[in-house]
Amino acid sequence: MATKQKRMIIKIDEEKCDGCGQCVPACAEGALQIIDGKARLAGEKYCDGLGACLGDCPRGAIDMEEREVEEFDEEAVKIHLEEKKKEQDETEKHPHPHFGGCPSSRVMEFKRPHANNQEVSNKESAPSMLAQWPIKIALVPPGAPFLENADLVLAADCAPFAYADFHNDFLKDNAVIIGCPKLDDPEFYREKITEILRFSNIRSLTVAHMEVPCCHAFYTIAEEAIKASGKDIPLKKRVIGIKGEEKEEKHAHHAACNHDH
Fold first, then answer.
1. Helix or strand or coil: residue 79?
2. Range of the domain at 73
3. 158 and 232 within one domain
4. Is the pTM of this model over 0.70?
5. What region, left, alpha or beta, does residue 19 occupy, with left being phi > 0 and alpha being psi -120 to 50 degrees?
6. In a 3-state reduction of DSSP, which class is residue 210?
7. Fewest CB atoms within 10 Å of the CB: 52, 114, 131, 161?
8. pLDDT 10s per residue in the chain (261 long)?
9. Same domain, yes or no, for 94 and 186?
10. Are residues 97 and 133 both part of a single domain?
């Protein structure tokens, strides 16, 4: 039976946690993992109680408390990390078609709404509302003319496929930049978006991301970029469900920072 002792260990507020996963890589011992859309302890013995993950939670869902738990076990941590590495290597070699980890990787299929084939075939194609190129964050120059005095949409690149009327509701009269916060480098995004905000007189910024946990990082990146830019730019979040519905909409607010006028 594992020896228990009273010591400091992390405490996770599930009401605040949105499962974004930013805390997971911050824990060198691998004590944190995302289960059922929430951050949870993989085991008390893996948490050293130093709180390295505290500053990486954008929702403030992680805190420290003193309670009676298993002793921290360095040898168990070593074995745990080796097993995680083996699982990761195996997954990369032989990816499974079923869901076994991050919610954003869950394979799902759902029926499309029934449509009258005759109506679809006779209907004229709706005009594109895209008024710029390029659109990928990595390719858009910070001083691009289409960014000047623009209302900018920062969109997860899955969102236009899920949300049927993306062109009318998001692109019309707006500039857009797209990317994937899970597969790309978030630090690069933070720096690039900061440059865009510094060099262009962006009037407002709307973040359109998917409901899956890892996609929520886009909003945090946008907040941090606004602060780093020294600008006071209205920021709005719109969350798209994987079935195409809008999950929530938050009214615009200012991610204020000290800046010169």
1. helix
2. 4-101
3. yes
4. no
5. left
6. strand
7. 114
8. 667 899 999 999 988 888 777 788 888 898 988 887 788 998 999 999 888 888 778 888 999 999 999 999 899 999 988 888 887 666 555 544 444 445 554 545 456 555 454 454 455 678 889 999 999 999 998 888 899 999 999 999 999 999 999 999 999 999 999 999 888 888 999 999 999 999 999 999 999 999 988 898 999 999 999 999 999 999 999 999 988 999 865 444 444 444 443
9. no
10. no
Q: Answer yes or no: do 64 and 137 share one domain.
A: no
Task: Measure the CA–CA gap between 95 and 98, rounded to whole angstroms.
Answer: 9
Asked if residue 3 lies in contact with residue 71, where contact means CB atoms within 8 angstroms, the answer is yes
150 and 250 assigned to the same domain: yes
**Joined tokens for residue 82:** 């080796």
- 31 is a domain residue: yes
- Alpha carbons 235 and 204: distance in angstroms, whole number: 6
- For 50, counting Cβ atoms within 10 Å of its Cβ (0-12 exposed, 13-18 middle, 19+ buried), the class is middle
Q: What share of the chain is helix, strand, coil (3-state, %, to 5)?
A: 30, 25, 45
Residue ending a domain, among 48, 83, 101, is 101
Measured distance CA(261)–CA(98) in Å, rounded:
53
In a domain, 261, yes or no: no
**DSSP string of 102-118?**
-GGG-----PPPP--HH
The answer to the question of residue 109 being in a domain is no
Task: Look at residues 230, 172, 235 and name the one whose alpha carbon lies nearest to residue 209.
Answer: 235
